[in-house]
Amino acid sequence: MGRVLHFEIPSDKPEKSLEFYEKIFGWKAQKWGDNDYWLIETGNKEEPGINGAITKRHEILQQVVNTIMVDNINETIKLINENGGKVLTDIQDIPNVGKFVYFKDPDGNITGALEGKM
To answer: What is the CATH number of the domain that holds 47?
Structure first.
């Protein structure tokens, strides 16, 4: 069963969005790599919930996107295509994290799928 494990919030001004979420919800942010991508810690790991990121808005990422953990990225891509979805990106190898794609469901919602190394 695939479990939602991560969210991404796109922003035209990520630093301003970070400030907003830090002030309102107490989230903690840490820049990841050299990109406009900040990992977000939303609370205590012992409590229910997930962490995510705020990133610069781009061609694919126009709305809040959840990422679902999968066992096999290639099998997931096959199932997406067979069931009316559309894969939007090539498989991305994220060092020390896993293999990742963005896809659209039949209703046009964008989601991520991650075969993790966790």
So the answer is: 3.10.180.10
